[in-house]
Design a protein that fits this description.
It is built from 14 helices and eleven strands. It is an alpha/beta fold. It folds into two domains: 216 residues, 3-Layer(aba) Sandwich (Rossmann fold), CATH 3.40.50; 91 residues, Rossmann fold. Helix 2 crosses helix 8 and helix 12 crosses helix 13. It is globular. The two termini are 20 Å apart.
Length: 379
């Protein structure tokens, strides 16, 4: 495992005083730009935004929103003093099996009901698509998902089962929807998978829960795809406990953040796909790089084989099924990249077939080829 550090830039997110719970009859104002120069300059949510997001999106099990997920010790039978003390933040237990529901719910909570009535739109091939579709169904509003032609059919089928409309387009056209925050002909509020302060505020609620359950956490590791998860978690952690280091986790052959941190700017890498298909891309969005650079302690890069081993370790010792992206932070923690203290790994999702998990237990030379298709690759 390799590690790429980030320069110690000044904190771009001033720790706001704790926000009051938004009035239940009003639309929460987090994500707007009128009340915070910090947010308008950096595009990051403030601490007040993140607290308002939590008040708006966290519901009891069975409700139309995200749930508070548990924090558990990895392999609790492991002898003390053998490497870091690793904890798992189990976002794979969300209603759709992924943390993405937090950001999607935050955008919907911050959008007036009359606007939501026209529907919601997202560009995604995986977990964000399912999160938006699930929330739209719960609210009785239309949902359109713009997906690349290579999107796994099992995931687009899930969107359609929830009542969403899927528009399959060439990869380049799909990528343009990310850049434009819109898709021609698709009416409704566009919910970006990562490049939106409201989405990052929703993601930041993960850090609030972590630091309430483990106040002395030394480090938090999040998978890096588009950067919305890492930036949201890091912004909240910086405000609550600056000494808690936040690291991005990437996989060999798909680590554009590590390359960008080393170069001091976004660069294009030679992207090599693997079964870890929930993260990784040829480059980072420039605006996400600028947000992350002063917040993260570095990028930790794991071997694909180490991610496979982490999936099996969680399945065997914790009875947790994680997708490759969700296991990547665990692989990085086990390698010691975040130190030997208390390290929290965000298990971002569990979108993986049991047959694929079983195949990972087979010696590499005898494994069947992984299922084809593009995934969301944006966390």
């Amino acid at each position: 495992m390799s590690r790429t550090g980030a320069p110690g830039d000044p904190d771009p997110t001033t720790a706001a005083s704790r926000a009051a719970t938004p009035d239940s009859g009003a639309t929460p104002s987090f994500g707007a730009t009128a009340d915070s120069g910090t947010r308008s300059e950096t595009g990051l949510p403030t601490f007040a935004d993140i607290e308002a997001a939590r008040a708006a999106i966290i519901v009891p099990p069975g409700g139309a929103g995200a749930i508070r997920t548990p924090l558990v010790r990895l392999d609790a039978t492991r002898p003390a003093g053998e490497g870091p003390e690793i904890y798992l933040k189990l976002e794979n237990l969300q209603p759709i099996g992924s943390f993405k529901i937090r950001g999607a719910a935050a955008v919907m909570a911050a959008t007036p009901a009359e606007e939501l009535a026209h529907g919601v739109v997202t560009a995604s091939a995986g977990n964000m698509a399912q999160g938006v579709a699930w929330l739209a169904r719960e609210r009785g509003i239309p949902c359109t998902v713009v997906a690349p032609e290579s999107a796994p059919k099992v995931k687009t089928d899930a969107v359609e089962r929830m009542g969403g409309r899927v528009i399959r387009v060439p990869f380049e056209e799909w990528w343009r929807a990310f850049e434009a925050h819109a898709y021609p002909g698709a009416e409704g509020t566009f919910i970006h998978a990562f490049d939106d302060p409201r989405v990052m505020a929703g993601n930041g609620t993960i850090a609030l829960e972590i630091l309430e359950d483990l106040p002395d956490a030394d480090a938090i590791i999040t998978p890096w795809g588009g950067g919305g998860l890492t930036c949201g978690v890091a912004a909240a952690a910086r405000a609550l406990r600056p000494e808690t280091q936040v690291y991005a986790a990437e996989v060999v052959g798909a680590a554009p953040l590590a390359a960008a941190l080393a170069a001091g700017k976004p660069v294009e890498i030679e992207y090599t796909p693997s079964f870890v298909d929930g993260i990784g891309s040829p480059t980072v969005f420039p605006q996400m790089f600028e947000r992350a650079r002063p917040l993260v302690a570095g990028s930790l890069v794991a071997e694909v084989s180490a991610v496979a081993a982490a999936i099996l370790l969680m399945a065997e010792h914790n009875h947790v099924i994680a997708e490759g992206a969700g296991a990547c932070p665990v692989a990085c923690a086990l390698a010691g990249g975040a130190g030997n203290g208390k390290v929290v790994c965000v298990v971002s999702g569990g979108s993986i077939h049991l047959t694929e998990v079983a195949a990972l237990a087979v010696p590499e030379g005898n494994r069947p080829k992984p299922r084809g298709g593009s995934s969301d690759r944006r966390r």
